[in-house]
């Protein structure tokens, strides 16, 4: 990934009293005895950047296959806006190729400014100009289609909108009204005129926010880690979003875009633009409810952390200056240059006293911050104990009539035993009265009835025989 170029002029002065620390990424490469030459950029025989074009076109040649294919280059640089009605599939293919290439190039820092989140269309046409094909003829149609589909959003509208840009409603939003007005004025519509302005690349903003949200839980360890100023937040996210933070020293707009998106659209943090204070969600406590607003206590903690970071950043250069002056004094003594040695020693003494004062203040502020963390932990502990006491109180209230319940239970058990005793007495009395021989009596009764029936039949047959004899 190429490092983005830093603009010569600052777009916006910092409104905060404490200057932002200089940001830089330390190299993790191992020292070697020789350095391998960096790979030369790819060359396309069909597309060559001009002297006026920036590194954007070279980045597209290096990383986009479409810009190394002769037929695709001709199609992309041609006036394909006429295909909107005659060949809509081809038109959409070219538009999608341009939009995807520009978004990926911006994310890699090839646009030079905007931190990968903003594209300035006034510079885009010149940055894409080539010697063979000139400027892309349908760039206006590409930008217009991206605006129509809300893939590019005007910078001022994005920062000033009070409503979620993803929220859909049957009531026209200010941006929809603006698009209708631009269409009526002829700025937008079925034309190939390039809309000039600064636009937020919605896809890149959402990707940066998701990358940050995935990494944040591993960076929050103490209560004050959730609270930041713009400078300390920039240092926090630098390893995660290097393209964005590289432009913060000259232009804070990309950082404000990201914070606005996280606070207004995703509701994953609280941001106070007036003080530049940021309050993150506590780890593992995210819910559907909006985050807590920034309080005066949070603003004070953010200022303390900003001052601590500012003083801490002064220690390495002061240490290097003391070492340099010490080496200078030793070299002057070795050369018998007494005056130069005395001057170097005086400067070293002054730098050493300044360094000691900075270290003392950093230690003092660090101790204050540690005490704030301890106090915040105590507050959280007391809150948990208060909630636990309320839970126990509720349970105890539900079990307050335990004695009455036990007494009622004993009474019911006594009744059960009493009823059981009565049943046992009845059963014994029934058995004494012959209830136990009931089955045997029934069997003998049936046998007696059978004998009676057989006796009747025998007597009847004898009577019939006597009648026959008579």
UniProtKB/TrEMBL annotation:
Keywords, ordered alphabetically: Coiled coil
Listed GO biological process terms: vacuolar transport
Region (Disordered): 1-49, 430-470
UniProt keyword Coiled coil present: yes
Basic residues bias (residue ranges): 433-470
Pfam families xref list: Snf7, WHD_CHMP7_1st
Key word Coiled coil present: yes
Family annotation (Gene3D superfamilies): 6.10.140.1230
Coiled coil: 392-419
Domain of life: Eukaryota
Protein name (record): Snf7-domain-containing protein
